[in-house]
Queue: 4 jobs
Job 1
Amino acid sequence: MGEVDQALNYYQQTLNLCPTEDEEELVSIYHHFGMLKANKGEMDQAIALYNQSLELYERTDNLQGKATTLHCLGYIYANKGEVEEAIAFYNQSLEINERIGNVQGKAATLNNLGIIYAKKGEVEEAIALYNQSLSIKERIGDVQGKAATLNNLGYIYANKGEVEEAIAFYNQSLEINERIGNVQGKAATLNNLGIIYAKKGEVEEAIALFNQSLEITERIGNVQTKAVTLHQLGILYANKGEVDEAIALFNQSLEIEERIGNVQGKAATLNQLGLIYANKGEVEQAMALYNQSLEISERIGDVKTKAATLHKLGIFYANKGKVDEAIALYNQSLEITERIGDVQGKAATLHQLGILYAKKGEVD
């Protein structure tokens, strides 16, 4: 039995023993039980437990508890791709925390709002929110929270193509997480460092980092980060030409993402599977996967995955000789990558457009 399963077992026993009139103890059990269910990927059960917690906090007029639970609900809805719902929960939590002077709760919510705006492609807004969060966490000595925000800033700068800046943020985050024994935070940062080293072409270093992350997530039962790492390993093995291994890793990731309702992760994995099947010449399968990915990313406002899928569809149409359709898709992708500051994605799309125009004889 993993550590999370063991904890769930203890909480279930505690809940069975807790008198219904002891609302203070009961609400704490509901809240922590919900957190564990969310970590296990059992999102519907987590939402039900958080709602029971929220009802009790409202009945006992516990504003801090209410703000914390609203924050947790925001996190779940963000992972489900219900972005506007998530923002509404976060803003409710933020309003309460500002009113009662709970700066630690405020910093945590600013951080998570930053994640949402980063995924929406509103990079400067995300950086501003992260910096507000970081300032508070440094002032109050919240080192675990600081590590999480440094990790998120690393992710933003990595997407902007500022690799050394990103590595510096990740290493600061990793040092803190190792010092305080926060294995969940350590796993997330190892995963993100693995992505950076993969993009730098240092494949064996990347695989080592991903495997370290995977070992931790399997040990602690954190299926969400496990799915992300399996996805990244899939990309690496696909790039190495080990296609069957890559498909197996993507399918493991996809199974988790579907089980826990992580639609953003599902869209990204469908996108990568589409690329594999396109390279295998299985055209109809590739198109179906790309279109599923595109539908999800458009629905949830995940512009980065949308841009990547439009780019791959552009390649697909170019290879079929449908040049005008390909150019239209590349231009849609280019507009997004320019707007969100994704220099790597922009460069790749400009390269493909250059090839197409050269073939059309329209070389400047």
Job 2
Amino acid sequence: MHRLTLTRWSGLVVLLLFTAGFGVTLGTLAPSANALSVNCHAKPHAGVNFANCNLTGRDLKNANLENADLMNANLKGADLQGAQMSGAHLNNVSSGSVVGLPILPAGWDLINGYLVGPGANLNGAQLSGADLYGTNIVNARISGADLSFVTSGLVKGNPTLPAGWKLVNGYLIGPDANLAFASLHGANLSHTDLAGAKFFSANLAKANLSHADLSGADLSSANLSSADLSGTNLFNANLTSANLSGANLSGAGLSQTNTTNVITNGSTKCPGAEGGPCHTW
């Protein structure tokens, strides 16, 4: 009886030692080593874990943040001059008023003091007049941001944008957007708020702009041939030298619109629904 009990206990001890050797734990799992290593006041070093840390105003000049975990971190006002951040994890990072010229991971840029890249948290960002050409904003959150006068093109992603904005053909489309020389041939911009947008010399041939708001927009020298502008609000818009050959302007509102040197032809459908060329507006 005693010998049998001793044998069972010996077997249990061996089993526990065996499982411990392979890192197997019984019962409640312990926190991961990664989670335990978070130290928001740690000295920066390669692979440092600053996830979820508030690093507002932190002096990180020339810091080695290569492969650092900065997920959900707040870097507003941080000094990143010369910081080495290649390979860093920046998903959902918040920023603004960031200074310096850091070395960033592929797909990331520092624009107007904001870290812009895939998964960036740019909610409420002040990006007025920013040049976002060629940026990667896959899964970025940009709701509530000021995008007035922003320049774009070749933008990649499926970001969450402010109300009234959309990403079309790689361009950020919305009120007061700077879309000069944009290539928007055949784009569907129906019912879109484009008030005050700049379309100077843009290619909008065959675009659907029906019932869009283009009040105050600059469409000078734009190619609007065969475009659908039916029911469009063109109040106070600038159509100087625009090409409206074959365009449909039936029902469009052109009060105070500048139509100097506008190009129309026999296929143009004028605002009063009569056929072109349009001599009176």
Job 3
Amino acid sequence: MSKNACRNLCSGGLVNCHALQLPRLYNVYKEQGIIENFEQLLDNIFQPLFEVTKDPNSHPQLHLFLKNVSQALGLII
């Protein structure tokens, strides 16, 4: 799974169940040559999250998604 794919998970505004299956899908991504190791998979997931936390304008859709999730969970942003 690429960083762009992770960023695009939020484009529909709904939590994508695919994201919850990442540990199970690791072997699929590795066999297809999309990633080389589990560290790369985690980096592709979390780096966009860190980037948007630091600069919400870097990924506006991801920022909106995180804002909606935090509101749904009762967190303050």
Job 4
Amino acid sequence: MSTNLIAIAEAARMLGVSTFTVRRLANSGELKTINVGARRLVPFSEIERVVANGAGKARRRKGARAGR
């Protein structure tokens, strides 16, 4: 079985959020990541799961302003 792993920056682009948001989601356990040496990678299946659950672009912190 092959696991497609994606860099944090690419995951952020695919989800339409910042790299900071991807790291925050990973730190909180909402997004599973895999450490490979010094790199933190996101399995593509996690991107699919997050998109299927309606997260990503629609997700915004309470009090965050649109257009920033």
